[in-house]
Amino acid sequence: MSERAQAHRVFAVVPAAGRGERFASSGTPGAGAGQPKQYAALGGSTVLDWSLRALRAEPRIEAIVVALREGDRDGAALIAALRDPRLHVTTGGGSRQESVLRGLEYLATHAMPAMPTTPGAPAAAAAPAVPEDFVLVHDAARPCLSVEEVRALLAALAAGAPGAVLAAPLFDTVKREQGGAVADTVDRSGLWRALTPQAFRLGELRAALLAAAAAGVAVTDESQAMERGGVRAVLVPGSPFNIKVTRPEDLTMAEVVLRGRGVSRMRIGQGCDVHAFGEGDHVVLGGVRLAHARGIVAHSDGDVIIHALCDAILGALAAGDIGQHFPDTDPRYRGADSRLFLRQVAVRMREAGFALVNADITVLAEAPRIAKHRAAMVENLAADLGVEAGCINVKATTTERLGFLGRGEGLAALATVMLQG
């Protein structure tokens, strides 16, 4: 890594203020009535959610600013439901370049603290971005971006590139049209199809976009603005499957790409945790304190739900178990809030390029009853994992008074998770 690149931080801006009139008014199934393309349903979620996933999975990206159109409640609700502290929302403009500019201004004027990744560690100092920091700009309607492509861009920047553009070479014969007929065949030598993200230094990109606007030039991507100032960005080979959803039929292709990627990058993990009852007047389950006649014998808070869930995720990652990462011989974890463990496991999951698809958890105990606390537990787990509450299920059963659980000597939890990269 070059000394110049190493000293600066990395952020992302996602312009998502477009209305997508052509897409929304097409009348094709899946387009939705008046629905912008970034909110179209795709693979059990939305196009925008998928477009953010690879950025969220890269831990070096410290903050992601999504520029929404004014009054966009759907977008604001979607971002809030993801519960990712690195996601920020600002109001976009009437064009792509104006929305990107507003995202850059947000980064330069707002201090964004990072979430601690180690239990007990102090929060990183909050500070706005500076002109020398890198910014990746990604289309809200490119849901098939991979973590590998993001890392390739960052590698180019680390090697000292003044900018980096994800792109795919053209292999098809290209024709120029005139009056509905073929005018001539274009030489495709050296022609590439520009993709996103595109990455540049914040100050240089801001100046280039402002200069284009002052000259009345409507740029179609960030690289075009930078080219006007003589910046020659490095072309980083990207996947031809990093498609942009422009027409409703593009959703079908995106679904195929994501499904195919899921087959090769799907992981399943399971976890189990048991704790005995001891002295005390409460138990902690899913981060919720429940009054009970007895407490839990444990080094930490003894939250069997979170411990089983951590084990399941670590198992899916082939990364050992909770005892390896948070040993009960370490005094730092005495009485620790287990939600800190889950947050750190979530960071490890994202660093490995995976996101949680769903988690199913079963509590085995005669008491306490969890029914009225289940929603709060789900909310806690979803927040710590950065997923929607609908991805988490918590349920309970008894052992019909059989065994140590049936005798009320302790409680246990089982967890199963599916991860997708």
The class by helix and strand makeup works out as: alpha/beta
State the CATH architecture of the largest domain.
Answer: Alpha-Beta Complex
Give a count of the beta strands, DSSP E runs of length 2 or more: 18
User: Termini distance?
Assistant: 26 Å
Give me the number of helical elements.
14
Going by CATH, the homologous superfamily of the largest domain would be: Spore Coat Polysaccharide Biosynthesis Protein SpsA, Chain A
* Main sheet characteristics: 7 strands, mixed
Portion of residues in helices? 25-40%
Determine the CATH topology of the largest domain. Answer: Spore Coat Polysaccharide Biosynthesis Protein SpsA, Chain A
Net shape = elongated
Written description of the protein model:
It is a single chain. By secondary structure, this protein is of the alpha/beta class. It folds into two domains: about 5-265, Spore Coat Polysaccharide Biosynthesis Protein SpsA, Chain A (Alpha-Beta Complex); about 265-420, 60s Ribosomal Protein L30, Chain: A. Helices cover about 35% and strands about 25% of the residues. It contains 14 helices and 18 strands. It has helices spanning about 5, 20-25, 45-55, 75-80, 95-110, 145-160, 200-215, 220-230, 250-265, 305-315, 320-325, 340-350, 375-385, 405, and strands at about 10-15, 40, 45, 60-70, 85-90, 135, 165-170, 175-180, 180-185, 190-200, 235, 265-280, 280-285, 290, 295, 355-365, 390-395, 410-420. Strands 5-4-1-6-10-7-11 form a seven-stranded mixed sheet, with helices on both faces. The chain has a five-stranded mixed sheet with strand order 15-12-18-16-17. A two-stranded antiparallel ribbon has the order 2-3. Strand 8 and strand 9 form a beta hairpin. Helix 5 runs antiparallel to helix 7, helix 7 packs across helix 8 and helix 10 (about 305-315) packs parallel to helix 12. The longest helix is centred in the middle third of the chain and has 16 residues, at about 250-265. The protein is elongated. Residues about 1-5, about 25-35 and about 115-120 have low confidence and may be disordered.
